Structures are given as structure tokens and as C-alpha cells.
Automatic annotation (TrEMBL):
It comes from Salinisphaera aquimarina. This is thioredoxin-dependent peroxiredoxin. It catalyses: a hydroperoxide + [thioredoxin]-dithiol = an alcohol + [thioredoxin]-disulfide + H2O. Belongs to the peroxiredoxin family. BCP/PrxQ subfamily. Keywords: Antioxidant, Disulfide bond, Oxidoreductase, Peroxidase, Redox-active center.
Amino acid sequence: MAHPDTGDQAPVIDRIAHDGERVNTAAEPDARPVVVYFYPRDDTPVCTRQACSFRDHLGEFNALDAQVIGVSADDDASHRDFAERHALTFPLISDHDGSLSQAFGVGRALGVLANRVTFVIDRHGVIVMRYQAQLAAARHVEKAMTVLRTL
């Protein structure tokens, strides 16, 4: 499946997050970099480690003026429980219809489980990093931080 890659314009995310706030990556052009990470499911061991790693580094992301957004097919109620249970203060977006995964070309591992893919999008809406690793939860944060420091 073809997917947007580094150098391509990122698909726009315009959804209501788990906390009821609207997330629109096109609302403020040239506003701030965005880290969008797609993960398979709330409350699974690797997904929880990944979300908590983003949470634990949120101060560093904020210092780099970057917004973090998590995306999975789970519904808003699941996202609210997940965020509350793990003190996640960044938006979690439900991709219940799979349209965001499709737009970003995330696909499925072995045709079944949603892939774990992280994108860094610069201030101009251009993808500057696409990183995919199914089991390396913390590497997604490290890779994103490394790229953000160069922007």
C-alpha cells in the first residue's frame, strides 16, 4: 500500500479527541510541529509503555513546541479510561472507521493488528519522519525527539 513518506504533505487530522477537544492540524498553518503516533490498542502492554513514554517526555516535547497526538481504532470511552488510568494529558483520537490509518498508510501487521507508526510533521505540514516498529515502544519517542531537535 502506498503511503505518505518523508517530504510529503501530511494528511490533515480534524477530529474530536477523547477529552472533547477538537484537534485540527490544519487550523493553524505554520503553528507548531506535530508528533502523530498510531498504536494498535489501549491498555495492551506495549501500547501502554509507548503512551507512558510519550507522557514521561511530554515536557521535552512541549519545550520543542511540539504537539503529541495518539491514534488508535479504540473508541472515545476506551481512550478516556486509558488516559485517566495512565495520566495521559495529550489528545487520543479514535480512528474507528480506519480513515486516518488509511490516509497515513499505516496498514496492519500480518494483516491483523494495527501497525505502530510514528510521524513527525513540521510547522508547514510536511512529514519529516515516518518510523515503524511494532515492539520498540520507547524508540518511537527517541526517534521523534531526535528529529524535532533538528527543526
